[in-house]
Specification:
This protein is α/β, with parallel strands linked by helices. Helix content is about 40%, strand content about 20%. Among the domains are: about 200 residues, Rossmann fold (3-Layer(aba) Sandwich); about 140 residues, Nuclear Transport Factor 2, Chain: A (Roll), CATH 3.10.450. This is Dienelactone hydrolase.
């Protein structure tokens, strides 16, 4: 009989949050009498009712036990099988023929032999997935002559890398190959365990099982709770509560190698280096989100003013008060409803350029002699191009000779001119950023003044009335002088007095007009930065 594994954890599991029915049954099978406990525990954390079925000697006894797995299931209930090695080969052949109407998914890890890759068709009710490892695998083929089925032969075939980078094989049923792995790569207690291949195969397996059992999980909500605690609530305890406790969680900010592994290190990182270091000016805008079986991938536009020490993105760098805009990609893995890992990437060269720590003109002399006049790096233009999409016009500016070439000029001369133009643009961007800061400071100052008490407002009104009276007296004197000068026919003096009159208008009105213009422009530029 299958060995049923229980847990001290919540037996309802992660999936039961949305599905109050009994957890789906998932049977694991392999040659040995026992199996990798950590793997079984991880699948139990995903909400499955896990049991282990040893293959033992195989044969009729094993076949009979496989046939009995669906017994006791109610109407509409199904089960899945995850098999390894020899047991995987046995199951692939056993369930090739119709009859197991309760089986909804069959996952085969590194089987020693697989069914014919050309024309094998599994029953439509079963979702099949095969993970191959090693250099060769046996292929079972049954010869037919005049419609009569002959003996089965097993032919050894070399495993090719598949197409693309994912190792997808173009055969009759879904199959992946893992070049850097040997059979046993997905079992933690074996020397052949290989983490990268194991986690990739896990994601693919989880996707097939959830589809087969028709179970959906809201990964987005889990991730958003983590983001809320990190950036908005700014709660270390809340952030740590979203992390898994079954494995060591890890967070890696790749460009600066900051982050942590394990709850203790991540607590220290959050408390000391991350949460308190983010300035009030930090803004994030979600550009895209991709959700997989166990991962959420975010593409974000992030902008901030480097007004305080930010160890996670600019470690060891004092505040430069420079504006920064950069595109960030975050890849989050979620296990059992908790965050297991987060990998974050961005263009660090762009960040260093924007804060003034990297000069694109500093080309090594050897490369300059070869005609290189500028380092192939860009600043905020990269983030703005992604943000603006099809409205952006910054493509291929670093490629020598791209676009219309200036007649009669060498590429080097043209590159120097392009560099000068880019430098002028960068200087203009800095001026615009400074102008935005000044306008923002002015707006803040005006907003502060507008919220003063009524007594203070009264004093301001009295001062304004006094200024208006003085302006009126000045205007009367100017009118008298103007009349005398006109009678003398002095037109040039009249022109000067007209200008003088314009300058004598009440200053409060001019400030209001300038405030309206400046505020409108500030909103546009601020929106562009965000």
């Amino acid at each position: 009989m299958p060995v049923t594994l229980t847990s001290n954890a919540n037996t309802n599991g992660f999936l039961s949050n949305n599905f109050p029915h009994a957890p789906p049954r998932l049977y694991f099978t392999a040659e040995d009498d026992d199996f990798d406990d950590l793997t079984l525990e991880e699948w139990r954390d995903e909400g499955f009712h896990v049991a282990y079925l040893p293959m033992a000697k195989g044969g009729k006894e094993y076949r009979g036990r496989l046939n009995g797995l669906g017994s006791g299931l109610g109407i509409g209930e199904t089960f899945g099988i995850v098999a390894y090695g020899e047991a995987a080969s046995f199951c692939l052949e056993h369930y090739l023929h119709p009859g197991a109407n309760k089986l909804c998914a069959l996952i085969a890890y590194y089987p020693t032999a697989i069914p014919d890759t050309r024309n094998t068709r599994f029953p439509s009710s079963i979702r099949v997935l095969v993970h191959l490892a090693g250099s060769t695998v046996g292929v079972n083929r049954t010869q037919q002559l005049l419609g009569i089925q002959g003996k089965r032969r097993t032919i050894q075939r070399r495993i090719n890398p598949g197409i693309g980078t994912g190792g997808t094989l173009k055969i009759a049923y879904p199959t992946y190959t893992y070049d850097d792995a040997e059979p046993g790569f997905a079992e933690h207690d074996l020397d052949e365990y290989e983490r990268v291949s194991a986690e990739l195969a896990w994601s693919r397996t989880l996707d097939v099982l959830r589809r087969a059992f028709r179970r959906d999980v809201n990964l987005e909500k889990v991730w958003e709770e983590n983001v809320q605690n990190k950036f908005f609530t700014r709660s270390t305890s809340g952030t740590l509560q979203t992390l898994t406790t079954q494995k060591e969680p890890r967070v890696t900010y790749a460009p600066t190698l900051t982050g942590g592994i394990g709850a203790d290190e991540l607590r220290r990182f959050s408390e000391d280096l991350f949460i308190p270091s983010n300035p009030p000016s930090l803004r994030m805008r979600l550009l895209s989100r991709t959700i997989g079986a166990d991962r959420v991938v975010d593409e974000l536009h992030m902008s901030f003013k480097h007004s305080q020490h930010m160890p996670w993105i600019l470690p060891g760098i004092s505040p430069t008060n420079k504006q920064v805009a950069v595109t960030i990609v975050s890849i989050v893995c979620i296990r059992g409803g908790k965050l297991y890992s987060e990998h974050v990437y961005w263009d660090q060269a762009s960040v260093l350029l924007q804060v003034g720590l990297l000069d694109p003109k500093l080309v090594p002399e050897k490369l300059r002699e070869q005609g290189v006049h500028r380092l192939p790096i860009v600043g905020r233009e990269a983030a703005m191009q992604i943000l603006e999409g099809e409205d952006g016009k910054r493509m291929n500016q670093l490629v020598p000779g791209w676009g219309s070439r200036v007649s009669g000029k060498e590429e080097g001369e043209q590159a120097e001119e392009e560099t000068e133009t880019e430098e002028e643009t960068a200087e203009g961007d800095e001026e615009d950023e400074q102008k935005e800061d000044d306008e923002q400071d002015q707006e803040d100052k005006e907003d502060k003044e507008s919220t003063q008490t009524e007594d203070e407002s009264g004093e301001v009104e009295e001062d304004t009335d006094e200024a208006e009276r003085e302006a009126a007296e000045t205007q009367d004197e100017a009118d008298t002088t103007e009349a005398e000068n006109i009678s003398d026919g002095d037109k040039s003096s009249r022109k000067e007095r007209d200008t003088s009159q314009q300058e004598q208008k009440p200053p409060q009105r001019m400030r209001n007009e300038d405030k309206g213009k400046g505020k409108g422009k500030g909103k546009v530029e601020e929106a562009e930065n965000e």
